[in-house]
Amino acid sequence: MIFIGGFLTAIGVFDRIARHAGAGSAIPVTGFANSVVSAALEFKREGFVLGVGSKMFIMAGSVIVFGVVTAFVVGLISALI
Amino acid sequence: MTTKLGRQTFAFQTKPVLIGHATVAGPKEAQGPVGSYLDKVFPDLVMNQASFEKAEQLMMKTAVEIALEKCSLSKEQVDVFVAGDLLNQIITSGFTALKVGAPYLGIFGACSSFCEGLFAAGLLVDSGAAQNVVSATSSHNCTAERQYSYPTEYGAQLPPWAQHTVTGAAATVLAAQGSGPRLELATVGKVMDLGIKDPFNMGSAMAPAAADTLITHMEDTGRKPGDYDLIVTGDLGKVGREILVELGQREGLDLSSNYRDCGELIYSKEQMENAGASGCACVAIVTLGLLFNQNYQRVLVVATGALHSPTSYQQGDSIPTIAHAVSIEFS
Description:
Low-confidence stretches of chain B: none
Largest interface: A-B, 24 and 14 residues
Radius of gyration of chain B: 18 Å
Order of helices and strands of chain A: HHHHHH
Mean pLDDT of chain A: 93
Distance between the termini of chain A: 35 Å
Largest sheet of chain B: 7 strands, mixed
Mean pLDDT of chain B: 96
Number of strands of chain B: 15
Number of strands of chain A: 0
Distance between the termini of chain B: 21 Å
Structural class of chain A: mainly alpha
Radius of gyration of chain A: 15 Å
Oligomer: heterodimer
């Protein structure tokens, strides 16, 4: 699924599918793959380090941050119970 | 010598002449109703350049060169080059100015740049100090998308009130003498903000600015909408234009018969995405292409722009907008 999302983004087709699919393509991990790959593609013009490296998570970054923090909190609670 | 009428309007006594102009655009615009008026069409959005930003610079440079060629002027004869675009630090204009080589004034009015540029150029020529002033503007769908919203391949579903940024550029040459349409009046807009916070809802955000400028223009000049063959706004789109008509009605401004929006004119029904088109080039291409070829006697062009940035709306600010109007007479 990740590969499919990434591949379709790279060949320029994912955004057209998403226009019709909406949540159907955004919610599964295909949406996550699209957000990372599209950002990586976009910012390659600014170079690999400052462009791709720092901006590839510009859309997915907050999902990762809040996901990890939530997992940490839930894990802590479950460890304490 | 320019004189002032009322609160915000300026009358150019010598009525500077638009002795030359050029419009260039991308494939989508070429396939629309103004396609046949374009001086040059670029077959894709990359235009064989290393980035979308460089492609936009190529478009603006091409528009300037074709406009100068049409009135047989060289770059050395340009007294001032006025330009503006949507990008941070208006890099399209600055980098193009480097290639044009003329004294440069960069302006930022977002999508109202076309009229803001004409106003500045008009002042320079009407003062008697400048002989030939070039004014240019451009926009590119991908440079605008990557700066203001999402990476271009991102699969977001845009709301139905969103607009599509036009890929194109236009340049005009304003001179003290010559033949061509004449710049008669310009109304400089005030920044308006009625609280719209959605950056995808530009039409609603800009309609109040267009209304304020139009109402002020009519009050300053003592004119009515009927005194113009056509009144156009730059890019209010389907949503914004309805709001403008209603706002106008409340103040006694009747826009029911001769008002259109360039954001609705530039694409055909089949090409229309959501609420219509936007971008600096939208109003420029429709005015210089379509409107200049219609046997009108006088038109009022009201270019509308949104003065927000991703930083301002992420910090919770609403979107301040502006509209500048220019009145153009055809002999």
